[in-house]
Amino acid sequence: xxxxxxxxxxxxxxxxxxxxxxxxxxxxxxxxxxxxxxxxxxxxxxxxxxxxxxxxxxxxxxxxxxxxxxxxxxxxxxxxxxxxxxxxxxxxxxxxxxxxxxxxxxxxxxxxxxxxxxxxxxxxxxxxxxxxxxxxxxxxxxxxxxxxxxxxxxxxxxxxxxxxxxxxxxxxxxxxxxxxxxxxxxxxxxxxxxxxxxxxxxxxxxxxxxxxxxxxxxxxxxxxxxxxxxxxxxxxxxxxxxxxxxxxxxxxxxxxxxxxxxxx
Amino acid sequence: xxxxxxxxxxxxxxxxxxxxxxxxxxxxxxxxxxxxxxxxxxxxxxxxxxxxxxxxxxxxxxxxxxxxxxxxxxxxxxxxxxxxxxxxxxxxxxxxxxxxxxxxxxxxxxxxxxxxxxxxxxxxxxxxxxxxxxxxxxxxxxxxxxxxxxxxxxxxxxxxxxxxxxxxxxxxxxxxxxxxxxxxxxxxxxxxxxxxxxxxxxxxxxxxxxxxxxxxxxxxxxxxxxxxxxxxxxxxxxxxxxxxxxxxxxxxxxxxxxxxxxxxxxxxxxxxxxxxxxxxxxxxxxxxxxxxxxxxxxxxxxxxxxxxxxxxxxxxxxxxxxxxxxxxxxxxxxxxxxxxxxxxxxxx
Lengths: 264, 348
Fold this sequence. Notes:
The structure holds two protein chains of two kinds. In chain A, helix 7 packs antiparallel against helix 11. Chain A contains 13 helices and no strands. Chain A has helices at 8-33, 37-44, 47-80, 86-98, 101-114, 116-123, 132-157, 160-168, 173-184, 186-202, 205-211, 221-230, 234-259. By secondary structure, chain A is mainly alpha-helical. Chain B is of the alpha+beta class. Chain B contains ten helices and 20 strands. In chain B, the strands form four sheets. Chain B has a six-stranded mixed β-sheet, with helices on both faces. Chain B is elongated and about 75 Å long. The interface between A and B is medium-sized, with 18 and 26 residues.
């Protein structure tokens, strides 16, 4: 046997990758195949899971839109302009990504539950503590860094000379953004929105602390998984898990397909 | 008329230092200089992409230093085209017209007209990534010229193209200039473009403009060693000048070169263009005042021009046509005579 053929580095590293991939597939298959397909179907159509699906969809879509509205302008500023404190702002805006969601949840709970701003918002009817509104806020707080980072890398990948040319052709900088920068960022925008939305659907920790886990009131899919698992309703728990798996796989696929130059 | 007055701009990596320049209406000005000379910043400052740190820019006697790019009507073309990838050629060319609130048919008409002039009329519905480099650059120039700008800025428009396309597009630029009469500032590092296009040329180095003049003047009479080196004069010597009655004499390491134009005695640089030197086997009987004997030490042949290195005590570079070279039937190591006129010797 020639020693040149026997490349142990190659064999060991590839084996590590294969074992890891195999383990993930096994775990996911185990979840999906645990109950019978009929039981899953029945659970999915149950009133509780239907509530969880629709609450998850509504909150995640709203939170994704809010993430887009705050992340796109900040991402553009970070990609194009230099300003005092930029590196500090950049770090702080990424912080929720590294923060445990439970910690974010505690912070949000204190902010909306104990501060004057929280009370003032509650006065005008915006109650975030233990309400579905809290789910949206928790999702936004934890997930906007995904949108922000993807949009920033997308904007950075577009040569500012496109914008210069547009300006010499008579576009103000707002028009330039609308007619050139944004359309050229379409793929990154789509990829970022999808990943933000998928993360929003799966958000648990921060939402649990701020919005609580009230059955059929603040019960999103992950909360449903948690509640039903706690009280032994395995079918309901697993049907919620299955839906979450499907959403993850599909959104990852879309992200990979359209992500292009966008990096997390 | 475009007037740049003492403009400075520091972008860290690149900078402009106290640049002043005037461009007449309808003039074709070429700016030449090495990479990093600050040529692109100069164009972008004229275009209004960013304000200068100091200095002023005037367009037709009106100061435009603080005017945003979109109100200047000065358009710009980059080396790498910068066509908007999400728009087809027609939408790219019509991009600026759309800002002028013209109706759709008027835009379509103007776009078609310009595209026809550039021979890309059949490509209007194609997207930029399906076009060749030459086609993309034609589209980019069309997009800039269709607005009938006060000044058209071209940043190395031909540098990314292959030889043949470059030559064709160069001819088209010339036609375009006479057709539209647009004032053009064109950046390059290629001297051929200077000769075929420029009414005047400005040489830039390290953020400064170091010489402005007609192409011939700059080529034959470089005012500094940098310009001489950069325009590829080939024969550059240093010596001491003695002003005399019938002409001045420059002493270069013990060799004498006769020139017509020493201002006064002292250290000077001397240039002689390689094509101004005649080469022959026997001494020529001519009125030329400079004759050297030497030996051919090197031959480079680029197909049309043959360049010889000749060791005549001083190292000379001589250029001659291929035909002339064949007729001489010389080879490396042969003894030759070099002859050139005193008026071919430029001193600075």
